[in-house]
Amino acid sequence: MLVALLREGEEVVGQLIRHIAKLDYPLDRLDVKLLVEADDDLTLQAVETTRPRELSVEIIPVPPGEPRTKPKALNYGLSFARGDLIVVFDAEDRPSPGQAREAVAAFQNGGDDLAIIQAPLLIHNRDEGWPAGQFDVEYAIHFNVWLPFLSRCNIPFPLGGTSNYFRKDALIAAGGWDAWNVTEDADLGLRLSRFGCSAEMISSPTYEEAPFRLNHWFDQRTRWMKGHIQTWLVLMRQPFSAIRGMGFSRFMAMQLTFGGSLLASAMHAPMIAYLIATLFGAPTWINGWHGALFGVGYGSVLAAALASKTARPSLATCMLLPVYWVLHSLAMIRALFQMISRPHYWAKTPHGEAARKGR
What we know:
By secondary structure, the protein is of the alpha/beta class. The protein contains 14 helices and ten strands.
C-alpha cells in the first residue's frame, strides 16, 4: 500500500490511517508505506503523531531531487514494497472497508492479462460549494457509468489517481510510473494496455474531498488536462507500436474516448459561445439544429447522472452545467500555455479544508 504525502497535517494523515485500519483485511498482510519528502517536517511530524499501534506503518523518506512529484515518490516506494499486489491511495482518501477484499477477489477470478483494478471514486463533500457539487456529478458519471462501460468493452481507459490495484510484476514490467507526467495515473493505465494488460472496475468506492474553492479546482483541472495532453503525445510518439500492443480496434477506440475528451474540453466554450451568438442572428432552422444538439448533450449528462445512482445534483447544479463546461475550456487553454512554460509543474491540491469547516 503506497501513499505519497506532501505538506499534510495531523487531521488529514490521522483520518487516512484510521480508514486504512478499518479495511476488512488482515492487518498483518498489509504492507503500508507512507512516502514523505525527506525535508517535509510538517508531514513527518503528523505521521509520527498519528501512527497507530494496531497497524504496521513504515515511513519512507523520499530523497530530495527533481522532479518532486507523486509518481517519483511512488517509484521510490515501489522498490520497498513486499506484496504481490500494489494499491495506491491519496492523503484524503476514505476507502470502503470491503474494497481490498473485493479487489483481491477480482484478481483471483480474472484472467492472466488482468493487471489493474480500479475502484470508483466518489465525493463526500458535495454540499460544500458549487465546484464540489459539479465535481460530484462528474465523478459519479465517470466512475459509475463511463469507466465500467469502457471496461466491459475492453477499451483502454485512463486510471483515476487513487485506489488503483496493480499486479506488482506487471507494474514493474511496464516501467512503473512516469515521474515527469503530472497525471501519472492516466499515463500508466494506457501504457499497461500497450503491454497487453487489461483493467477492470469494482464496486466498493473510495470517498474523496473535492476542491470547493474555484481557484483550487482551476489549478487541479489545469494539471489534469496538461497531464492528459502529455499522455496522448507520449502515446503518439510511436503510434504503430501502440497499435501492435493494444490492437487496432482498441487503439482507435482509445482515440475516440481519451482523445475525444481532450477535444471536447477545448471545444466547450467556443461551441457554447457560437450557440448563443446564433440565437441572436442566424436563421431559425440553424438555431433549431444547434438547440437540438445542445439538448442531446445536456440531456445525456443528466441521464448519465441519474444512471450513476450516486449523484445528487441540486437544481442549481443541473442548470449551471454549461458554465462548468466552459471552465473546462479555460483550464485547457491554461494547460496548453503551461505545456510550454511549466510542463512538469505539479499544482498540489490542498486537503482537509472541508473537515476544517466542520464537515
